[in-house]
Amino acid sequence: MNRRKPQNRPKASSPSKAVKRDARAPRLGMRAWREQHLYSLFSSLGRIAARPWTTLLTLLVMALALAMPLLLFLLLDNARQLGGDMQQAGAISVFMKPGESAEGLVLRARAMPSVAAVVLKTPADGLEELRGQPGFADAMKLLHDNPLPAVLVVTPRNASGSEGAMALVSELQASPGVDMVQYDYLWRERLDAILAAATRAASVLAGLLALAALLVVGNTVRLDILGRSDEIGVMQLLGASSGFVRRPFLYTGLWYGGFSALIALLVVLLVEFTLLTPLTNLVSSYDHRFALQALGWLPAIIALGGGALLGWLGAWLAASRHLAAGVPR
Amino acid sequence: MRARLFRLTSHVSRLTFCRPTSHVSRLTAFAVIRFDRVSKRYPSGHEALSELNFELGRGEMAFVTGHSGAGKSTLLKLIALVERPSRGQVLVDDQNLANTRRRGIAALRRRIGMVFQDHRLLLDRSVFDNVALPLIIAGVARDEIGKRVRAALDKVGLLGREADAPVALSTGEQQRVGIARAIVAKPPVLIADEPTGNLDPQLSAEVMALFGEFQQVGTTVLIASHDLSLIKRMGKRVLVLDHGRLIDDFRPASS
Is the pTM higher than 0.80? Predict the structure, then answer.
């Protein structure tokens, strides 16, 4: 049987047949894909620009929701730095009672197996040290005699916070003539615990605010979709896939997220700038042991990407819910 | 005898292959639109179409007519998969619509040009952008889009108006833009629901003549209309619906 017999079908066979097969193919080529994405990219920008006030409001709400966690993390970052170096915190300061000589204890401490090093600061050394501190020199002049105790700075051989170090602390505390033993590690540990708790709280807050940003984008896109339901209906009748119809809205979400993250970064920058002068004054009174940390590049880029992702996700949620209509099951 | 045998084999192949491949379709491809005992009952209980059987060949032009509510619009909606039949099968361009889902629905509609009574143009875009939409949806390259949009506008006599907004056009011109949009992607099937419903007799005749031209180049054209005098003058095949039943299939002697 002659299966390829063309019969007397009118034209329509070669060129339009080729077009038809193209259209039927479920996936379009790379070029067409790029073409469609560019189209969606720019048409979504046009949509945003067409409603400047709605856009601005959405952007500001989202930007504030994103700026809050950024500022919190910045604050915690700086607080952590203020806490100082962990290595320094390993030393034990032993304050002698006023007038007590420290020589005996120095010898005994050096003999202890758990002690790595002992440095003695005599009352005269302490006075000298204080005079070196800014603002203290004048106060020192008022003193008739040296009220400072002798101080031993003991470096334990064991790791900070270990059982051996803690035993050493109590042993030193029990030594005769000792007024007070200060082990920085303990308060440092407490500070770390506080910071960890605050970081966790900030993370939870960031999560909640991200959810709020998601809902803001979702709602804006939802309203956009409702306002364009006629247009969407026409596009679906013309054979637009749900992906094609959804894409401009996803890009809208992407723009919203990206732009609001950008505004959030500007807000953070503004806050940094506002606090710079008073904080610099404060810092200089701390003898420059602490420098104000600005938000780094990496967190900024992560914030931008995260914002854009949030916008995309919010738009996707809204679009998927609303575009299912118009297609029979 | 040979003809009968052929008809029999083609029938068998249709039964065997739910979605015939192009080889098989060459044997059976006389019908571009085929309704096989199609009924449509809306959830409200209204039976819009019952037991409808007809075929439309490649390059054939036909009218669907009948009083309002006879099922003309429903018939067209079933072809474009805006609605699904309650019973029976619809085949469009070798594709069994019963097996067509989501992505397939979009692909099917890309092969059907649709013209509406109220033209359904996007009013916030230019004439050019409206006509270009099906090509953008199909992923045609940009320079190619320009050429084809101008060719389509030329065909409907609106070449100079591509930058205008649709609202700046007369009703007849808007309808012609709608037609340009329907044919710009060169679909094998063109359906129109009361395309002359809002037009005066002369514009109606012009629009109908335009549809006749598309038939000449091999497009299958199906038009729902209740303008009997116009239909009569066109001298094409006429399907007459009454309360959802096909009561007449009039074929003029010439076609």
Answer: no
